[in-house]
């Protein structure tokens, strides 16, 4: 297996729906093209932002297939195929492999609350079923449990295709801990747009971004500038984008980003699937006002 590293700006893609709640295939295909033309460096369908918990297996597979087919190898496609059922995660991973995805993203066992030994065995079982890169996904706010540094070390020592981790715990110190323990053996990716600059300054290699759904060029500029070592210029980009980084999470994701995608005409609707629901009028106003500060031409202060 040739070692592949995913770095830079990677979009955690939202999934477009029609008014009746079905998958909007045309919007998804156009969305992939918009992302590529905006200079994004990787696509990640079927993560949290893609509403993966509310898509059935057939829909999940269709989204991955469409993104891979539309991208045509122009950039890496990393499929979200995690689950709190190891068997389900393996099945989704095998499908992603067959569809041509370049790697997969795997969350820890949400709701189950496994021990560190259970987490180790879960990721080990998945890694044995694919030779493509696996990104570990640490997000204790949603999963309750975290992936300990010791468990990450065990996984890297056993599986050559585990060399990445997406960190969404909100602690910059995790980058220092991971890099101190594993150095260049681990590729750390920020899972929080607002912390991307701080993460890269501490040794991270990029971001899996929500904001890049609507700002692929700007987020890529932030990441590439920071990775080049020009932190002063990167901080200027960060401050310009920060109001949107903040307000993309005042409602459960991807509710805010879908509001922006519809406003920009990228998605035909901002529909989400229950148990997610429409934003409150007050939060919708805040989201659109923040969008207008970053993209003034949207006239976002006027609610649709």
Brief characterization of the structure:
With 304 residues, this protein is an alpha/beta fold. It is 45% helix and 12% strand.
Strand order across the largest sheet: 3-4-5-6-7
Shape, principal axes of CA atoms: globular
Supply the CATH architecture.
Alpha-Beta Barrel
Order of helices and strands: EHEHEHEHEHHEHEHEHHHH
- Structural class call reads alpha/beta
CA radius of gyration is: 18 Å
Q: Quick one: CATH class?
A: Alpha Beta
Measure the end-to-end span: 50 Å
Total tally of structural domains: 1
How large is the count of helical segments? 12
Characterize the largest beta sheet: strand count, sense, and whether it forms a barrel: 5 strands, parallel
- CATH-assigned homologous superfamily: Aldolase class I
E-strand count:
8
Strand content: 5-15%
Specify the helix fraction band.
40-55%
Q: Which residues sit in consecutive blocks of at least 5 with pLDDT less than 50?
A: 300-304
Average pLDDT, rounded to a whole number, is 94
CATH names the topology as TIM Barrel
Relevant terms:
304 residues, alpha/beta, TIM Barrel, five-stranded parallel β-sheet, three-stranded parallel β-sheet, 12 helices, 8 strands, disordered C terminus
Protein architecture, described:
It is a single chain. The chain is α/β, with parallel strands linked by helices and 304 residues long. It has one domain (8-228): TIM Barrel. Helices cover 45% and strands 12% of the residues. It has helices at residues 25-37, 57-71, 86-99, 116-127, 140-143, 149-158, 173-182, 196-201, 216-227, 231-247, 255-263, 281-294, and strands spanning 8-12, 42-44, 78-80, 103-107, 134-138, 162-167, 187-190, 206-209. Helix 11 packs across helix 12 (281-294).
